[in-house]
Amino acid sequence: MNSPLLKLFTDPADAWLEIRRAEEDHPQQYLPRLLLLALIPALCLLVGTTTYGWSLAGEDRVRLSLASAAQLAGLLYATTVGGVMLMGVMIRWMSRGFDVQPNLNQCIGFAAYCATPWFVAGVVGLLPMRWLALLALLAASAYASVLLYGGLQTFLRLRKEQAMLFATCVWGVGLLLLVTILVAMILFWSNGLMPEYVRPASLG
Q: What's a Pfam family in this record (predicted)?
């Protein structure tokens, strides 16, 4: 079941062939994987913000109350799943400008598999340090770009020239969507949910 996901990191070219065949035989088979993988960053952030916390100055650490951390985790999960689905909708919409007509399930599935590095990088939420999160985000973004440019041609059966242009369009829209969703999520959580901080939190 998880072989194609593992191959995305070891043999992405072969993985995309397997994923395409699986999607053709069983539409929406990506959905359980998306719902499961999206739990990784949400649950890790829940644990990290309530047990480890983060340092603002000196040795003091700030943690979230369990209720606030649960709100943040739930918001992150919903945002992640919704963002991937919205990206799939955008890929389907942009495909009208190319000589290809993928269905919505295929587009959402492709977006979900491309987002796999971000889901895996979510484990750094266990230690919510800004520099670590930044490094993980940059590494995940770089490899997600590799999957995008390497997989679009295979998954959607595009010509090489089409795939490069289409992938660049998807990359640009994806970056804009990512920034917009993250900013909206942070603003809503900070101003709408009113998080409860626990400080100082000495960890020994």
A: Yip1
